[in-house]
Write a structure and sequence with these properties.
Layout lengths: L3 H25 L7 H13 L4 H15 L10 E6 L6 H13 L6 E4 L10 H4 L17 H5 L9 E6 L6 H13 L1 E3 L5 E3 L3 E7 L3 H8 L16 H16 L2 H4 L4 E4 L5 H22 L4 E3 L7 H10 L1 E3 L2
Parallel strand pairs: 1-6, 1-7, 2-3, 3-6
Antiparallel strand pairs: 4-5, 8-9
Helix pairs in contact: 2-3, 2-4, 8-9, 11-12
Length: 318
């Protein structure tokens, strides 16, 4: 039985505790705040990636959660699906993050799913079981040692990239479901690979042709200047996600932490990409010759084409 005095005391005490708790909780769980490390990472990413703010933000969020030690145990650090047309910068975004965090863009284990369109080819990924012909000559692509190669003293993190995932065989799909859910991969010789300190990236060009139709022309960027852009961002995102849901099973989609749609690059964004790529080769050019250079580009696709142009388009000035 609660007396009137006790009831009054609880009423007076309740709001005070609740208000203090709410204030403390809001200070602790402020979603807008970033650690100094995460802010540095975001700044460096934005210097390397143009026009894909959602992708940059997704990587920064995952990195901050990992640094805080709050990622889910027994699962990968993050499972990200990158959708978008060719040349929009999906693979380049992963490489840029690797350059910043690990010091080189090759610190990413890349799996080209076009090479695993048949079930028997899965041995190239996990190795052949003991007793099979060529067992000792088949070395797995994904091993604990390969993942640990990118670890640094201050950062025990790995990147695993599955490129063009829509081309994967059924055998690879079965492996992926386990990797995305349990952060574990069993190799051909029954060794276990722990993926709990790994960010798994998956890229796909699904919806690229439909997105190109929305743009009328151009696979990598918007060409027509008079093209209406009202609602275009939402249409592109909806087209890509709906195409992915038709292609991929619900079991796969439910294991993803984030689906990021890479939007076709606009002309001004391509100008930024060009500046970024030119900065990357500037030191190499200046170190190799004292003669001035000029740059001529006929790129018509997107960021991937511009990257190639920055190397073959450099010619000594006359």
């Amino acid at each position: 039985m609660v007396t009137a005095t006790q009831s009054t005391h609880k009423k007076e005490r309740g709001p005070h505790l609740g208000k203090g708790a709410d204030q403390g909780l809001s200070r602790f769980l402020d979603a807008e705040k970033r650690s100094a490390t995460a802010c540095q990472f975001e700044h460096a990413m934005r210097e390397k990636i143009a026009g894909q703010d959602e992708a940059v933000q997704a990587l920064v969020d995952i990195y901050q959660v990992f640094c805080a030690g709050l990622h889910s145990p027994g699962r990968p650090v993050g499972n990200l699906l990158f959708l978008g047309p060719t040349g929009s910068g999906k693979t380049r975004t992963v490489e840029a993050a690797a350059e910043i965090l690990f010091g080189e863009n090759r610190a990413v284990i890349k799996v080209d799913c076009a090479e695993f369109q048949h079930s028997h080819e899965i041995a190239k990924l996990i190795g052949s079981p003991p007793g099979y012909l060529g067992h000792r000559e088949t070395h797995p692509l994904i091993t604990q040692e390969a993942l640990a190669a990118s670890h640094r003293e201050h950062l025990k993190l790995s990147f695993l990239l599955f490129d063009e995932i829509e081309k994967a065989s059924d055998a690879l799909w079965q492996l992926l479901l386990g990797m995305l859910d349990k952060a574990t991969l069993t190799l051909g010789d029954n060794r276990k690979v722990d993926l709990s300190q790994t960010v798994i990236f998956l890229t796909s060009n699904l919806g690229g042709s439909q997105i190109a139709d929305l743009m009328h022309r151009g696979m990598g960027f918007i060409q027509p200047k008079d093209k209406a852009t009202t609602g275009l961002h939402e249409k592109v995102e909806r087209t890509a996600v709906e195409t992915a849901r038709r292609k991929f099973s619900p079991e796969f989609m439910n294991r993803l932490d984030k689906v990021v749609v890479f939007h076709p690059l606009k002309r001004e964004e391509l100008d930024e990409v060009l500046e970024i790529e030119l900065r990357r080769v500037q030191k190499r050019v200046l170190d190799s010759s004292t003669r001035p250079f000029c740059f001529e580009s006929q790129a018509k696709v997107g960021s991937s084409s511009l990257r190639r142009e920055t190397t073959k388009g450099m010619e000594p000035a006359t």
